[in-house]
C-alpha cells in the first residue's frame, strides 16, 4: 500500500498562509530552494518546473496529487487548469466546475478517494497539496507529513489542519534537514 503524504509549508507558529491566503511572507535561502528542487521536483506545478528547467524531471516521490479548491484556484488565476500535468490530479470541491480533462473533480467523500488511491498498486505515493480543511478531513489516512518550516512568525492565519477537532494523532520524526537562514524540513511518519 502506498502512502498519503501531506507536504506543507508552515511558519514557526504553525500557519500555512496568512488570514487572506497570503504565502509571500515565507523566506527562503538559496540552499533550501536548491534542495527542494532536487528532492521534490514532483511537487512543483508545471509553470514553476518550466521556469527552473525541470520540465522533464522524473517524479521522485509522487504520481498523484490531491488538493482542495482553494489550493487549485491560484493556478487557475494564472491560466493553468491543469497545474500538475506530470501527476494524476484530483480536486476535492463541491463547487469547482470541470475545466480540464486532466483534472478530476471529486464532489464528495475525500476519505474514500484517498483510501482508493492508497490501495492502488503503484511505486510512487500520493501528494496531499492542501488545503487545511481537506488535510483535517483526510487526517485519518495521512501516513507522512513533510513540514517545510520557515523561519518566520505569522501571528495569525490558516492552520495546517483547519477545523480539525481536538483528537491527538501521533507521528514520529524520521528525518530532519536544516539550512542556512533557518529553513528546516521535518519528516514525520505515522506511528
From TrEMBL:
Residues 4-182 form the Bacterial bifunctional deaminase-reductase C-terminal domain. GO terms for biological process: riboflavin biosynthetic process. GO terms for molecular function: 5-amino-6-(5-phosphoribosylamino)uracil reductase activity. It comes from the Bacteria. Pfam families: RibD_C (PF01872). This is Dihydrofolate reductase. It comes from Mumia zhuanghuii.
